[in-house]
Amino acid sequence: MSTPPFLTLPGCARAVRLETARGSFAALHAVPQGRPRVATALLVPGFTGSKEDFVGLLEPLAEEGVEVLAVDQRGQYETGGPDDVDAYALEELALDLLAVTAELRSAAPARPLHLLGHSFAGYVVRDAVLRATGSPLPWASLTLLSTGPAALDDAETERAKLLLAALPTMSLEEIWRAMKDMEEASGATPELLDPEVAEFLHRRWVSNVPAAMTAMARQLISEPDRVDELAKVALPKLVLSGERDYAWPVELQAQMALRLSAEHIVVPGAGHSPNAERPEGTAVSLAAFWSNVS
């Protein structure tokens, strides 16, 4: 899971709820201060993540004139959702994203809207783009952040299967404690976290809807390769990754970029979550890309 570098929102940002035709979504909203808004960015977090994964991007992007909305998807952290696995099918999440997009376009119809999906959300944004109708599309660009062309790498597939086996019989609190026990037993040096961040990670985990975690984990181990479909969509695309990635090898992400005729940017010093691990460098790369395509 992504670990936010901090939790205190910058002065340009606040927590909001976005009302859409498909329900209400918890979000973080950042607005440029003292300068024109040149673009809007919609940031979508991955499996077991949340809008807070993008907290480090809010201020640097706002300083570039980008209004930012980072959302919790259905079933994630503060958005919530029903106890029904079918409610979290990829199609449903993509339709949610189209509803969020419609609200943002309605609020600023003339401003470019850039779409970004991290990790599992790469599937969601891809499906949303492939489902979108009309011309032009409602987005000015698509960024795939630390995601892959299809299902997870083999090692991570096994982890997802372990979670799927545990979810029917264990509470999220019990799974959390089991994960911590496994981490301690492995002998790995635990990451030293600010107590506030550590408490947040626990609170976020137990706040997820188990049915949503089940649906997303199943998708992560079964998603087909749809890169060729996406390549046919006339939309500027960027593939952004860290120097290493436990979920999809960086080399595989580079190949995906070639298939999409997209640039592949590697954020120095980052792993699976450049947005949280190296937010300044990630923001610079995103702002440059968006500026070139707007």
Automatic annotation (TrEMBL):
SUPFAM superfamilies with a match to the protein in the record: alpha/beta-Hydrolases
Record GO terms (molecular function): triacylglycerol lipase activity
PANTHER family per UniProt: AB HYDROLASE-1 DOMAIN-CONTAINING PROTEIN (PTHR43433:SF5), HYDROLASE, ALPHA/BETA FOLD FAMILY PROTEIN (PTHR43433)
Pfam families named in the record: Abhydrolase_6 (PF12697)
Alphabetic keyword roster: Hydrolase
Gene Ontology terms describing biological process: glycerolipid catabolic process
Taxonomic placement: Bacteria, Bacillati, Actinomycetota, Actinomycetes, Kitasatosporales
Residues in AB hydrolase-1 domain copies: 42-283
Source species: Streptacidiphilus fuscans
Keyword Hydrolase tagged: yes
InterPro entries the record matches: AB_hydrolase (IPR050471), AB_hydrolase_1 (IPR000073), AB_hydrolase_fold (IPR029058)
Name the UniProt record assigns to this protein: Alpha/beta hydrolase
Keyword Signal: no
